[in-house]
Design goal:
three-stranded antiparallel β-sheet; Immunoglobulin-like; about 140 residues; 7 strands; rod-shaped; alpha+beta; 2 domains; 3 helices; four-stranded antiparallel β-sheet
Length: about 140
């Protein structure tokens, strides 16, 4: 008979569930507070717009005139972009005029062969940058 009482006794279930819930709540609160303290929440807001660019090369006596054209995707405006530059590795930068949408283009002249050319986005607050598109001039 005492065995039946032992199996039917479920008084310890409620305190165990209570302790598990309290631990779960503590872990969740610690994660949320840690995210804000470390500033990880701010970085989520500064994600680069998603867009595609194509590059055209026009040979010009040993160098290239490079044109980057926005083919599609997000529009770059002053709300989501501080600056958008067409940059040839250490040689020159050319800023796009905001707002940049599909069909808009910008050019850099006199880029050496085998030079990396990038479209570089800067976040609205200027803290983050990202390469939106990249190519290398022909050799």
């Amino acid at each position: 008979m005492k065995l039946k009482n032992f199996i039917a006794d479920d008084r310890a279930v409620s305190p165990v569930i209570g302790v598990i819930l309290m631990v779960a709540i503590t872990v969740i609160l610690a994660a949320v507070i840690g995210t804000f303290v470390l500033g990880l929440g701010n970085q989520v807001q500064d994600t680069a717009p998603q867009a595609t660019f194509s590059f055209d090369f026009e040979e010009n006596t040993g160098t290239y005139n490079v044109t980057a054209t926005h083919d599609g995707g997000d529009t770059f405006t002053s709300e989501n972009t501080n600056s958008l530059n067409l940059s040839a590795s250490g040689e020159s930068d050319q800023a796009f005029d905001l707002s940049v949408s599909a069909g808009d283009s910008e050019s850099i002249d006199s880029v050496d062969s085998e030079t990396t050319v990038r479209v570089i986005w800067t976040s609205p607050n200027g803290d983050n940058t990202a390469t939106i598109a990249r190519t290398t001039t022909p050799s």
